[in-house]
Automatic annotation (TrEMBL):
Function: Binds to DNA and alters its conformation. May be involved in regulation of gene expression, nucleoid organization and DNA protection.
Subcellular location: Cytoplasm, Nucleoid
Organism lineage string: Bacteria, Bacillati, Bacillota, Clostridia, Peptostreptococcales
Superkingdom, natural source: Bacteria
Family, per entry: Belongs to the YbaB/EbfC family.
InterPro entries per UniProt: YbaB-like_sf, YbaB/EbfC
Subunit text: Homodimer.
GO MF: DNA binding
One annotated Gene Ontology cellular component of this protein: cytosol
Organism per entry: Hornefia porci
Name of the protein this chain belongs to: Nucleoid-associated protein BHK98_06410
NCBIfam families assigned to the protein according to its UniProt record, in alphabetical order: DNA_YbaB_EbfC
SUPFAM superfamilies for the chain: YbaB-like
Keyword field: Cytoplasm, DNA-binding
């Protein structure tokens, strides 16, 4: 019975942690800061800022690459933050699906 209570407590902690993570945001940049992406804990792009000097109609590919780089870095940071937080809760246990 104590084991079930421990699992239920861990489940509540995980639900609370997930809710807290969803409220967090990370900011990532590319090209020395000419492109800035803000990604939420829900892995949603919430803001994208592009400095005017990087916009070149003759070189759209570079701008596309910078946007992709900034968004991917933001997603990576959210994954890292999520893994760190779950690692604290599980004490390093390798629980499938986390």
């Amino acid at each position: 019975m104590a084991q079930i209570q421990q699992m239920q407590a861990m489940q509540r902690q995980m639900e609370q942690m997930q809710a807290e993570l969803e409220e967090k945001e990370v900011t990532a940049t590319a090209g020395g800061g000419v492109v800035t992406a803000v990604v939420s804990g829900k892995k949603e792009l919430t803001s994208l800022t592009i400095q005017p000097e990087v916009v070149d109609p003759d070189d759209v590919e570079t701008l596309q690459d910078l946007v992709i780089a900034a968004v991917n870095e933001g997603m990576r940071q959210i994954d890292e933050l999520t893994n760190d937080e779950y690692g604290k809760l599980t004490g390093g246990l390798n629980i499938p699906g986390m």
